[in-house]
UniProtKB/TrEMBL annotation:
It is found in: Membrane. Residues 640-654 have a biased composition (Polar residues). It comes from the Eukaryota. Pfam families: PK_Tyr_Ser-Thr, Stress-antifung. It is a single-pass membrane protein. Residues 18-121, 128-235 form the Gnk2-homologous domain. The lineage of its organism: Eukaryota, Viridiplantae, Streptophyta, Embryophyta, Tracheophyta. Residues 334-608 form the Protein kinase domain. This is Cysteine-rich receptor-like protein kinase 29.
Length: 666
């Protein structure tokens, strides 16, 4: 087998030991024969007593108070029960040797992982520590094509693993790569994670591949909550089937629960009593269900845009719907002091729920016109979208004439609030701007490729990018978004929506939109982030030029450094120039020449990829104005959302701006 070696661990508090065991001193130490020591040994030795577990996942605890021990053991999905227990026992022995007195430790074996702690670790998605391993074997042929095949394989495996149940979240598969190579891949989460957290963990792991393993034929990324591996050789066997009728047992959490075996007589007595009782309860339940079904239930019907081909109706779970009184109290009766934004379709308020959670509430005005359509559209979309780079919908309210959307609160306002202000832009150094460029790309890639539905946003712009407490970007405003079929590449509409300066030419002129329309808008965003200039209305001498004209002119003249924001003098010039290059590729007039967001992510993550030469962008003022219809004569609003400072300064135009999601800070 090809040799492998360790790269690094991202968490500085971890002691790196030989092998794959990590010992965390920050969580405290224990002594031999202490209460925690005895609880931990009892817990780890109990795995083999759980005969009913044949799916390779053990999550139990033992003890009381601060000396309580928690453990998670998970095996690869092709391991039998005996193979799994042997692997976990080997990991137990390794941890005993490498981490003899640490209260928290983890060991990643090739076929299993074992983790224990003196705190509850069940159901928590944890990314650190991270261990990255790679093969020294180089990829044959085109690294770019290999990476594309690898990314496609891993995305498919993420979806399969995340869709698993509480017994197993695991997937394996293979893909063909150039030069007769085959990639074998594997993804796995601890099954106690939600599907959302599993996807987040695995996506984070896959994002490490370009850093650790670019150009290599194999690699591993290991995290406490998930792990991935790709390899030029098949390293796994057939996945063992799970019994569809056998749910996992409840987690055992006390001393006596570890000694329940051998009580068969008691079990039989309980069964004799339980069966008739259960039968009676079942009969009563069926009768109640019958009564409920007979009574019509109130439904909230969600439809798509008027020109959408589908007229789906969606009944939302009651857990998403908030009582109006709850939101009224949370916002202090929609007090002016809590208002953080005002748009054409209503106001946005800051609020706090009774559990302490900060929220942003959009209260649509009663005369918002087309707001009904966009309200329903956004609820339909956001309820199905979960990604760290998208604003998360918490719930909604429909009572009487009130229509409210409840979002997570994003505290740092919008991107345009910073990059277009000569003072505030200094807070965004190159590292933060590059983080924003990559985060927006990940969010759009999720919309286009990785979500359950293919979604075209149609109004990507700086004021629709919100920044969280760590200044990570979150895409907002899905009132104009369109659902298309997964295999559909483009569509047409008679109703043009969006913002001038960001709209692709085929969409602005002909109403033809596609994922490449969003790619165009993303390219404009990248150039705005690098230059600190708005896409429309930049002055050059006596002329007013749009940003794409200025960028293209400097690109042709070999003076592209002229467009870079002067505040970025300490940034990586190679990264800055590469981002400008990528931005120009995204705004090419020919939409077929624009890259997909998958390709954009590869370009951002791999510096070994040679970028093609861009062709002329769309809407260059000095050569394209004659062919661009006089669209500014259409009805428009000049609202520049995102901050009060930018509202009065806006020179951008939004066509048919029937969006319900204002881009003020949430």
């Amino acid at each position: 087998m090809t040799a492998i070696f360790f790269l690094f661990c991202l968490c500085v508090t971890i002691i790196i030991s030989q092998g794959t065991a990590f010992c965390d001193n920050s969580k405290g130490n224990y002594t031999v024969n202490s209460t925690y020591y005895n609880n931990l040994n009892t817990l780890l030795s109990s795995f083999s007593t759980h005969d009913q577990i044949n799916y390779g996942f053990y999550n139990f605890s033992h003890g009381q108070g601060t000396d309580k021990a928690y453990a998670i053991g998970v095996c690869r999905g092709d391991r039998t029960r005996d193979q799994c227990l042997k692997c976990l026992n080997d990991s137990r022995a390794a941890l005993s040797k490498e981490c003899p007195n640490q209260k928290e430790a983890i060991d990643w074996g090739g076929e299993c992982s074992l983790r224990y702690s003196n705190r509850s670790i069940f159901g928590l998605m944890e990314n650190q520590p991270t261990l990255e391993l790679l093969y020294t074997l180089e990829v044959r042929g085109s690294v770019e094509q290999f990476n594309a095949a690898l990314q496609s394989l891993m995305r498919n495996l993420i979806q399969t693993a995340a869709s698993g149940d509480s017994r197993r979240k695991y997937a394996t598969g293979s893909a063909s790569a150039p030069d007769f190579q085959t990639i074998f891949g594997y993804t796995q989460c601890t099954p106690d994670l939600s599907s959302e957290d599993c996807s987040k963990c695995l996506n984070e792991a896959i994002s490490k591949i370009p850093e650790c393993c670019n150009g290599k034929a194999g690699g591993n990324v290991l995290k406490p909550s998930c792990r991935i591996r790709f390899d030029p050789y098949i390293f796994y066997g057939p996945t063992l089937k799970l019994d569809p009728d056998a749910p996992p047992p409840s987690r055992l959490t006390n001393n006596t629960s570890l000694h329940l075996q051998g009580k068969s007589k008691t079990s039989r007595t309980i069964i004799l009593i339980a069966v008739p009782v259960a039968s009676a309860i079942l009969a009563l339940s069926l009768f109640c269900i019958y009564l409920i079904v007979r009574k019509p239930r109130k439904k909230i019907e969600i439809t798509r845009e008027k020109d959408s081909d589908d007229e789906d109706e969606v009944t939302f779970a009651e857990s998403l719907q908030f009582n109006f009184e709850t939101i009224r109290v949370a916002t202090n009766e929609f007090a002016d002091s809590n208002k953080v934004g005002q748009g054409g379709f209503g106001a946005v308020y800051r609020g706090r729920l009774s559990n302490g959670q900060a929220i942003a509430v959009k209260r649509l005005s009663s005369d918002s016109g087309q707001g009904d359509t966009e309200f329903k559209n956004e609820v339909l979309l956001l309820a199905k979208l979960q990604h760290r780079n998208l604003v998360r919908l918490i719930g909604f309210c429909l009572e009487r004439r009130e229509r409210l959307l409840i979002y997570e609160f994003v505290p740092n306002k919008s991107l345009d609030y910073f990059i277009f202000d000569p003072i505030k832009k200094t807070r965004l150094d190159w590292q933060m701007r590059y983080q924003t460029i990559r985060g927006i790309a990940r969010g759009i890639l999720y919309l286009h490729e990785d979500s359950q539905l293919r979604i075209i946003h149609r109004d990507l712009k700086a004021s629709n990018i919100l920044l969280d407490e760590n200044m990570y970007p979150k895409i907002s405003d899905f009132g104009m978004a369109r659902l298309v079929q997964v295999d559909q590449t483009q569509a047409n509409t008679h109703r043009i929506v969006g913002t001038y300066g960001y709209m692709a030419p085929e969409y602005a002129i002909y109403g033809q939109f596609s994922t490449k329309s969003d790619v165009f808008s993303y390219g404009v965003l990248v150039l705005e982030i690098v230059s600190g200039r708005k896409s429309i209305g930049s002055r050059h001498g006596e002329r007013v030029e749009d940003l794409l004209s200025i960028t293209w002119r400097n690109w042709k003249d070999g003076t592209i450094a002229n467009i870079v924001d002067p505040t970025l003098i300490k940034g990586s010039q190679n990264e800055i120039m590469r981002c400008i290059h990528i931005g120009l590729l995204c705004v090419q007039e020919n939409m077929d020449a624009r890259p997909t967001m998958t390709s954009v992510m590869l370009m951002l993550n791999s510096y070994s990829l040679t970028l093609p030469v861009p062709s002329e962008p769309a809407f260059v003022v000095d050569s394209r104005t004659r062919s661009f219809p006089n669209m500014l004569s259409l009805e428009h609003n000049s609202r520049e959302t995102g901050s009060s400072e930018s509202t009065n300064k806006s020179s951008q135009y939004s066509v048919d701006e029937a969006s319900i999601t204002e881009t003020y800070p949430r």
